[in-house]
């Protein structure tokens, strides 16, 4: 990772080849850490370095060193081992606890992101099902209209009578007996054709026709 020229903008060797620098901690955490570790927590990575004997050599930047971590001397890497725990706990044990807590926090964050993605997918599925049902409803209406062309006009007249009755305070007109269709008189048809008595025709009426 440190020796890869493709990642020099993020992490590279120091000028003396006995240290390494993390130039972009954010990119390092997002793109490089997940490839080598099971987390993307930069603070946890720094704690791991301390656990294996690395030390921070510059207070103004993320530069670390280890006596056995030298450029071109890979044979020294087996000498980099985890520090032994002190009896009864100690600082290393506390650092391990912090590392575990950091990993748990990463897992929780990933679960929340996954839950959000699942909810978004469910919402998309609901919208897709609603869009797929609209052509079927329209086809059902057209089939009913082809079977009975006067159904829309009768619905308009019924709505007009209901609105007129509500405005005058009189009871609504009696409904036609079941199984019989109401015939439209010439005067009513002419009135509708001339637009003299414009009848509101909201979609709710259309919906009642073919529901």
UniProtKB/TrEMBL annotation:
Entry-linked SUPFAM superfamilies: Winged helix' DNA-binding domain (SSF46785)
Name any Gene Ontology BP term: regulation of transcription by RNA polymerase II
Record's keyword terms, sorted: Coiled coil, DNA-binding, Nucleus, Phosphoprotein, Stress response, Transcription, Transcription regulation
Give compartment(s).
Nucleus
Pfam families documented for this protein: HSF_DNA-bind (PF00447)
Q: Which GO terms describe its molecular function?
A: DNA-binding transcription factor activity; RNA polymerase II cis-regulatory region sequence-specific DNA binding
The HSF-type DNA-binding domain covers 33-57
* Protein name, entry field: HSF-type DNA-binding domain-containing protein
Question: What Gene3D superfamilies does UniProt report for this protein, alphabetically?
Answer: Winged helix-like DNA-binding domain superfamily/Winged helix DNA-binding domain
* Protein's organism: Digitaria exilis
This protein's GO CC annotations:
nucleus
The UniProt entry's coiled-coil ranges are 107-134
